[in-house]
Amino acid sequence: RIDRVEDTEARLVEAVRVEPGIYERSSDIETNIVVTQFVPPLPVYSKFMDLPLITGDELPHAPHLASTAADWPGTAAVYASVSGSNYELLTTVNQPATLGEVLDPVPMGPCGIRDIANTVRVRLTRGTLANITDEAFLAGGNLAASGDGSPEGWELFQFQYATPIDDNIYDLSVLLRGQAGSDAQMPPVWPAGSVCVLMDSAVGQLNLPSSTRNLSQSYRIGPSGRPFDDPSYSADQFAFRGIGLRPYAPVHLKASFWPGGTSFEWVRRTRTDGDVWDGGDVPLGEAFEAYRVRIFKDGALLRETVVTAPTWFYSAQDHADDAVSEPFEITVAQISERFGAGAEATLTVA
Under a CB-based contact definition with an 8 Å cutoff, are residues 11 and 2 in contact? Predict the structure, then answer.
């Protein structure tokens, strides 16, 4: 084997003696190798969900995460950073969530009773849906979330029946709307294009410390086999308020008119152990009982006060001081030591 040739007054050749057999094709070599085209990993589609307590055992301050992909990578990795650099692995997701798109507008529905008037037509990205029995339905089965995709814009609802309409398209019917206090997030209409997520075991919480509440962080999510700066990773930046800590909106807000003014009463709800049916009132669920009461006229705030019982008297003198005339609005929100004022109940006094 000639390795080097130098032409000068004389030709100098450097060579090595080798066995000829090393250049012969071996019969053990695979000859029909198929070269396939490289397919880059596809992005992982994710939704962060700042939700109320569902079972009561969740971290009340931590968001949920639903992730899926057209070609699931097996495991997705979630990285977080406060500064936008020095990302650290937060968790991994081993199972794709069942996500879909709402195809038709869904009007607001009743809370506390079955909604048999509305149907949610949804097209799934992946996964399947199924009917459940009455017992499973009333025990909390087939829980889903419908929303605009923002961290706080989710209504939790249940469906008893999932009727296949076409490939990956289902009609969800016999609904329980505004579950777990999410009636505060129910708009007059969920428009077509809203996101729908099945709240099963594939949707987990991020194990964030409570110190990260209201702290804006950057998140990157993608195939775990790739580095976090790979093009297949999606990037988001959010700060989560911890909706699991938010008090529910009071209910049964009513006004009684007296010669000396107007009396308002309401019934509080609880975000913890509210399904205990042993009698008596539901647990307070907060360090203390307090409510923020506000009076509005044509959108302008006229009066705000804090009371420690589910009643408030708006005296005739206060009416005169506020120069308020009917119609006007009163809003009531329960106050949490950690969250502040929760969701509001609203009554128009006319």
Answer: no
Distances (CA, A) of 182 to 97, 246, 305, 347: 21, 10, 25, 19
C-alpha span between 256 and 89 (Å, rounded): 57
- φ, ψ of residue 245 in degrees (nearest 5): -95, -5
Q: What average pLDDT does the structure give for the chain?
A: 93
The radius of gyration of the chain's CA atoms, rounded to the nearest angstrom, is: 31
Rounded CA-CA distance 186/178 in Å is 7
Question: How distant, in Å, are the alpha carbons of 123, 152, 204, 257, 302 from that of 244?
Answer: 29, 11, 14, 36, 30
Contact status, residue 50 vs residue 193, Cβ threshold 8 Å: no
- Identify the residue whose tokens are 């809203």: 194
Q: How confident is the model over 262-302, as pLDDT tens digits?
A: 999 999 999 998 887 777 788 999 999 999 999 999 999 99
pLDDT in tens, 309-346: 999 999 999 999 999 999 999 999 999 999 999 999 99
